[in-house]
Amino acid sequence: MSADRSKFVFVLPGLIVLVAIILFPLLFTIRVSFSDWDVARPGLDWIGATNYLRLVHDTRFWESFGRLALMAVGSVLLQYMLGFGLALLVWREVRARRFFRVLFLIPMMTTPVIMAVIWRTMFHESLGPVNDLVRLLHFAPLPWLSQAGLAMMSIITVEVWQWTPFMFLMLLAGLLSLPREPFLAAAIDGAGPIRTFLRVTFPMMAPISIGAIIIRLIEASKILDSVYVITSGGPGTATETSSYYIFIRGLRDFQVGYAAALSFTYLVIMAISLTIIAKVLARAMLVRDRA
Amino acid sequence: MKRIKKYTLLATTVALALGGTLASAQDFKKYGIDKDVPGACSYASMSKKDYKGRTLSVITHAVPVMGEPTDLHAKQFQELTGATVNVVHVPFGDLFQRIMIPFQTGQNAYDVLFYGSLWSGDFHDYLAPVPKKYLDTAGMKDVTPTYRKVATWGDTMVQYTVDADRNYLKYRTDVFNNPEYKKKFKEKTGHDLAVPKTWEEYDEIANFFNGWDWAGDGKPHFGSAEVTKRDDLMFSAFIDRASAYAKNPNVKGGMFFDLKTMEPLINTPGFVKALEMFVKAKRYFPPGGDNFGLGDEIFSFGGGQTLMSYTWDDAFVQAMEPTSKIRFKVGSSPLPGSHEVWNRITKKWDHFDKPNAPAYVTWGWTSAVAKASKNQDMAFDFLCFFSNEANADHDLQIGRFGINPYRNAHFTKSFWADKMGWGKTVGDQYVDTLLTIDRSKNHVFDLRIPGVNQFMSSMATGVSEAMAGQKTPQQALDDVAKEWKQTVNRIGVDKVRAAYANVVKLEDNE
Amino acid sequence: MSALYRILKYAAILLWSAFVIAPFLWALTTSFKTANGITGGPTYIPWLQYQPSLEGWRLLFRSGGGGIQIGGPYLDSLIVTISASLISLVLGTLAAYGLSRFTFRAGFVRNADITFFFISQRIMPPVVLAIPFFLMLQFLGLLDTKFGLIIVYIALLMPIAVWVMVDFFNTVPRELDESAMLDGCSPFETFWRVILPNSKPGLVVAGLFCLIFGWNDFFFAFTLTFTQTQLLPVAIVALNSSVTPWWSLSAAALVSVAPLVAVAFVLESYLSRGNLAGAIR
Amino acid sequence: MSLVATELTRRVDGVVHLDSVSCVLERGRFYVVVGPTLSGKTSLLHALAGLDAPDIGTITFDGADLAAVPVWSRSVSMVYQQFINYPHLTVYDNIAFPLRRRRLAHAEIESRVRAIAETVSLTPFLERLPGALSGGQQQRVALARSLVKGSDLLLLDEPLINLDYKLREQLREEFLNIFSAQSRSILVYTTAEPNEALLFGAEVLVMHEGRLLQVGSAQSVYARPATATVARIFSDPPMNLVPGSLDDAALRLGDDVRLPRPRHFGPLPPGPYVFGIHPGDIAPNPSGIAAEVELAEISGSETFLHVHHAEMRLVAHLSGVYAYALGENVQIALDGAKLFAFTPDGELAAAPTSGG
Predict the structure, then answer these.
(1) With CB atoms counted within 10 Å of each terminal CB, which end of chain C scores lower, N or C?
(2) pTM of the predicted protein model
(3) Nearest CA to B2 among B397, B430, B412?
(4) Which residues pair with B221 in a beta bridge?
(5) Is A10 inside a domain boundary?
(6) Domain-by-domain residue ranges, chain D?
(7) Chain C, window 146-185: residues with a beta carbon less than 8 angstroms from a chain D beta carbon
(8) Within its chain, how far is the Cα of B478 from the centroid?
């Protein structure tokens, strides 16, 4: 077998298995999105693009995208910065760094749906410890879950708690695999820590950073469990994200056809925006590399 | 008070597992059952059945509410009949879809279903009618008419009554009876302090008792705990408040919709007024009270943080737990009402000298057997065993089971005063409250029509938007009405009307 | 390094540690409470502030009496997660090697596009896939079985394996492959005899990511099973009744994270040995 | 018995890696490919090995076209500039690896591995992992692995570049001994250092920008580089090139330097030329032209003196260590007898007589 043919032997098994598993659900979702499958009318009739026309005017759906963007980008950015900071902190000589590394990884290992309940109890405005701490610092208790801005912040906090370890792991591994020479060169040039970071560390970490950010954006966009448990989209619709809205329409309301149209639209928009984000990130971060 | 004897139960379970023999009818004592009540569904009758080698699949609510009694009786049924009973427990928020997906895809997933009766409009097509044999049992015949109605779709009983629920007012008797507070309240408001008969009174009292330490434990206490978390059970709380203004006993033909035109009435002044009151109520909620799920409400009132609350029994039961700090300091009463009730025919507010306080039969747990089930005989036997008189008496006594009076026999005052250990004051008042609700001629039922969740989630979103200040109450409910209209059109006007007619028939006492 | 810098550094580390550990400490103390220990406001110290009880823990291991038996679901979760992770890892690693080492072109499609196709499988919100997957497993007669869940999890986990392994292989010098081929290895032998034995760090990371994501999936485990197969998260939320049982959910959170803490130690030991160098990029 | 490459051309994403390279490589000979970084040396080796298929062009071995033969079935070995070994195998297993792929008998493998290990002085390290060895030892392992097979074609891609100076000298010495024993293989060795080629005294292929510029013995290429480019590539430091002109009597460099017309220019017609001189042929001399020191690098026991005279920049390669201050004025002697002359488009017009 030639190298040219053998390359398919590597890629095809995985590709075929994946397509086999995912193709039906995907095609089915597209088909359902053209049907009127509803709680009272299950089945695949054909109603053309009705669902898509309805979706165009569904301000709740489009608003949820804005909130999703804010929540996903905000939390991923925070995760990235914190994760990078933490990785830098325990990268080099630190006492008990192995302990801290393990500790910093653990939140990622917890089940989001269960941890969200724990966090809700933490944020409970009269029975939870968060406001207890706030009182201890002599501030008035804060409406963590019942005021729009704070509710958003609470959810982002939970996301940051759970997923900063992912960034931390990726970036720490990246840092540990960096060659030593550029740092020596920078040291010889008399560069201070900040300059070294900007000129040496950050550019070399750019590729791994882009990968990690994209993966986290994908995962963060699907945020559902924590929204459901912590605020259930409230107050009002202040924390309602796309996938939560799709969940309400699809499985609460059981508007299966409409939810399929929402999801397919979501999928297309996400695929496009992620591609653009990846390109923009690559340009922004890799250009600095060359400069 | 008799509580379930956990350790005996555990020990017997182990012993049985090892021995592998079927339990005999006489063993009921080990389950904490005082005495078997003879009948078709009794321990004695069940032990004669042989379902060896057959499996029953049951879906029920998370433990303990409904979930724990399901487990308990499943275990007993297993031991008595030799059947294998597999039970899955699902949180309330996910129960609907867990049941609906298999229904709609034609998958025979569960034989027996425990769920909220408000969904019967969506589920009834997939349910097996209760066979005559079971309708004729003494236990079934003793179910109060209200809850027989809830279990019936059209003329057919498709749900097996195992519970009955209603929302009622819960309040702190120690505060309401405190002479000093009475005096202060009179000075401040010019009114006598009494259990509120209208929502306006509720508002005034809750506001007065908000934010200060009226319980004397050094902590601030608050006026009212209500379920306000959007996709939790907030829709029921809003109906509780809105019924007083919107359910006019003199106007027939529907409270949520005009049955004739199927025009939504959700944005009529009655509902708007209720929502305005609800929004105003935020000022006497405890911290975080704008985002309380049912669980938070239970902890808040049951834990003594708030003066009043209104939903199901859970908070009351929590307050009456033997270890509770506020045991015997709580009272119950039907929900407040309103002197002014909107009349949608005359487009005017009608005045009622005696406040209009409709009794909201707040769905309640029910059970059913799937039409697709291949084990219908065994499934109905399980449900009839589940709800046999001995088991029901036992389950009623365990607050966390969430099983509440649904048979005439359950409204025996001595049972609550003595067996439950609630004493005469609390027990009698509780029974009276429940009886008043059950016997009321002015009922509000859930919107048991196809797509009920769509209507309720639209409504909850609108209410929540108004509560969060994103929209005015009128605006929010106008938007809900618009969405309801679209939903009705989507599902089909005739289909919805046919279903709603059943509800209206019950409400109008026809 | 100035003293101030050192102090700031340790302060930052300790602050973050406190943030990380706070929910666990809260869960630990909550797991010994009853309703009475909760309703009076936040309490922390048993005996002093509340009367501890083992009820929360008992509920996890009791059957028939209002608890759940966590043992069976625990085992089921392990079986499903490990099987799906292994299969995903095998298929994903092969695909990743192909994508890293060979050039694919079909129309405008390049290697990067194929890699993105794999990863893009994770974009779809699970909510939508619930019904199609339900129908698919129904057709295959695999609803409510571990095998059915494994199939679905492969689709969820393989993208992760591909992503990690493509990046890993890209850091393995191509000269290693070339040497092997020059030494007489066919591409498959090259992969098997030379690349795979040197890919342990990548495999460990990819495998552990699969385990983490698989172990913590709630949605599919929830939708695609009835009563026979129950995975851990599903069994645990069965406690989430009208009264949110803070105590038993807290205990469950601690119990469910236990096996994955072992995972954290494995990951860390790879980090410390520097073996992860290039495992993730 | 030879390997014939014809018009090999390869582009990757629009960048030319090989541009119509043709050559004939004979068995038992030692070839050194000399060229700067990215000149196409590595591409040529990859093409010869069969690792990359050329876009155009053919490679035949003893008359048979190799295009259809996959790499793993060819008789080729390669040593890389990075120390490429199998990290998970011991030194012994590394060396035995290619033999095992050929399913040789156990005893045969053992004896061949031990023999080659002895040759490259690895016997004491056979049970170690490559990662535990020094860079030089690792490269010996790679060498041993490539030699043990006895391939027809042995390719070495700048194998010494990543080693320190001393080790490089030492290994180069050993290589020479080992290679001279390989009578039946074609050896191709790439390097950016012309001195290496000169030391090996091998057949040289000079490459630049993907093209093969000149082929010949190291001495002949050094003495008569075909073009100015070759002259620069095949000289370390690169040959000084200075534009100037020639008339019947004299030679001008830059604006104001006049030298008598060298005798070895023979009948070269007058006109503009580019004159070249090896840095080693320049030396300070009180009678020379005035120049200013730009830089004096000392490397080992040698000094590289960078000077300029007006626009004319020159590098002198002096043996011995000399101290010069920046900006210091020196006199530099240019020996006309050592001058090369190239036409303005770079073709060699005249070269010093060898030994002169």
Answers:
(1) N
(2) 0.87
(3) B397
(4) B212
(5) no
(6) 2-233, 240-350
(7) 173, 175-176, 178-185
(8) 28
- Cis before residue D237, ω within 30 degrees of 0? yes
Residue A265 lies in a domain: yes
Distance in angstroms (rounded) separating the CA atoms of residues B52 and B284: 57
Chain mean pLDDT for chain B: 90
Alpha carbon separation from B297 to A116, A131, B171, C39 (Å, rounded): 19, 18, 13, 11
Question: Do A83 and A164 form a contact (C-beta atoms < 8 A)?
Answer: yes
- Widest CA span in chain A: 75
pLDDT tens, position by position, for chain C (281 residues)? Answer: 578 888 888 999 999 999 999 999 999 999 999 888 888 888 888 888 888 988 888 888 876 566 778 888 989 999 999 999 999 999 999 999 999 998 888 888 888 888 888 888 888 888 888 889 999 999 999 999 999 999 999 999 999 999 889 888 888 888 899 999 999 999 999 999 999 998 888 888 889 899 989 988 888 988 899 988 889 888 888 888 878 888 888 998 898 888 888 888 888 887 766 544 444 43
Give how many domains chain B has, as a whole number. Answer: 2
CB contact burial C176-196 (16+ within 10 A = b; e otherwise) = bbbbbbbbbbbbeebbebbbb
User: Which phi and psi angles does D160 have, rounded to 5°?
Assistant: -105, -5
Please answer yes or no on whether B65 and C241 come within 8 Å at the CB atom: yes
Domain of residue B80 covers 6-161+363-404
**Peptide linkage before A235 cis (omega within 30 of 0):** yes
The answer to whether residues B69 and B181 belong to one domain is no
**Predicted confidence (pLDDT) per residue in A21-44, tens digit:** 988 999 999 999 999 999 888 888
CATH code at position B493: 3.40.190.10
The answer to whether residue A86 is domain-embedded is: yes
Which residue among A38, A228, A236 places its CB closest to the CB of B464? A236
Q: Is B116 helix (H, G, I), strand (E, B) or coil?
A: strand
pLDDT > 90? residue D181: no
Instruction: List the domain range (segments joined by +) for residue A241.
Output: 59-290
CB neighbours of residue D135 within 10 Å: 13
Residue B337 sits in the same domain as residue B459: yes
- CA quadruple C95, C101, C104, C110: dihedral positive or negative? positive
Structurally, chain A folds into a number of domains equal to: 1
Residue B426 forms part of a structural domain: no
The stretches of chain A forming alpha helices (DSSP H) are 3-32, 50-56, 59-89, 97-105, 112-123, 129-136, 148-176, 181-188, 193-196, 202-221, 225-230, 242-247, 256-290
Asked if D53 is an interface residue toward chain A (Cβ–Cβ < 8 A), one would say no
With respect to residue B437, please indicate whether it lies within any of the assigned structural domains.
Answer: no
- Clarify whether residues B211 and B346 are in a common domain: yes
Name every chain C residue with its beta carbon within 8 A of the beta carbon of A13.
91, 94-95
- Name the class of domain D2-233: alpha beta
- The CATH number of the domain where A106 resides is what? 1.10.3720.10
Spatial contact of B385 and B40, defined as CB atoms under 8 Å apart: no
Asked if residue A8 is part of any domain, the answer here is no
**CA angle, A29 as apex, A59 and C222 as ends, to 5°?**
95
Chain D residues inside the 8 Å CB shell of C179: 78, 80, 84-86, 142, 145
Across the A:C interface, residue pairs with CB atoms under 8 Å apart total 277
Name the region of B328 (left: φ>0; alpha: ψ -120 to 50; beta: rest).
left
B14 to chain C: closest CA residue: C63
D240-350 is classed CATH 2.40.50.140: yes
Q: What is the CATH number of domain C71-238?
A: 1.10.3720.10
Please give the ipTM for the structure prediction: 0.85
As a whole number of angstroms, the distance between CA B332 and CA C276 comes to 65
